[in-house]
Amino acid sequence: MKKTLLILALSGFALTACSKPTENAAEKVENTPQIQQSQTQASAPATTPDTTHNAKTSLDWAGKYKGLFPCADCEGIETELKLNADKTYELEEEYKGGKGEGKKFESKGSFTFDNTGSIITLDQAADNRKFFVGENFIEARDRDTGAKIDSALAEHYKLNKESN
């Protein structure tokens, strides 16, 4: 008899411990400040760019970049852009083939990063050109908006960084 009562008591205790929490208990858990804060952070969309991790702060952007840009009336424009750590630049462009054969243009000046830290703008000496700075490359962008160039030749507006 004592064994039966003991088994019933232990079974009742085990079943009570395994039961689902009541709605009131679940509401209390959801309303704790820590749970509310983490739910808010998880559901809130990112509205501001992460300015701590961008090209300006995270990449080794200083160096020499080379490539061949498209040209309307020649075979291409051999372009070399050197970005210095003190935010100065040297730009050399040489027209290849066609009417511009051998024409060379050079400009020097300073550049600035935009508020995202990923796009640079060269000064007036280089007609305020804009470039997106990526890992070991820079890419020419629209001069007015900084948007990616949208054309059939878009992939050819990239200069690759030379290794030292």
Describe the structure using short key phrases.
4 helices; 164 residues; globular; 32% strand; 8 strands; 8-stranded antiparallel barrel; single chain; Lipocalin; alpha+beta
List strands and helices in order, with pairings:
Blueprint: H1 2-17, H2 23-30, H3 33-43, H4 55-58, E1 63-69, E2 76-83, E3 88-96, E4 104-113, E5 119-122, E6 130-134, E7 137-141, E8 158-161
Antiparallel strand pairs: 1-2, 1-8, 2-3, 3-4, 4-5, 5-6, 6-7, 7-8
Radius of gyration: 31 Å
Beta content: 25-35%
Order of helices and strands: HHHHEEEEEEEE
Distance between the termini: 89 Å
Beta strand count: 8
* Tally of individual helices: 4
Low-confidence stretches: 25-30, 32-44
- Overall 3D shape: globular
What is the residue-averaged pLDDT? Answer: 78
Biggest sheet statistics: 8 strands, antiparallel, barrel
The portion of residues assigned to helices is 10-25%
* CATH architecture assignment of the largest domain: Beta Barrel
Name of the top-level CATH class of the largest domain: Mainly Beta
Within the largest sheet, what's the order of strands? 1-2-3-4-5-6-7-8
What would you call the structural class?
alpha+beta
Structurally, the number of domains stands at: 2
Briefly, what is this?
The protein is an alpha+beta fold and 164 residues long. It contains four helices and eight strands; from the N terminus they run ααααββββββββ.
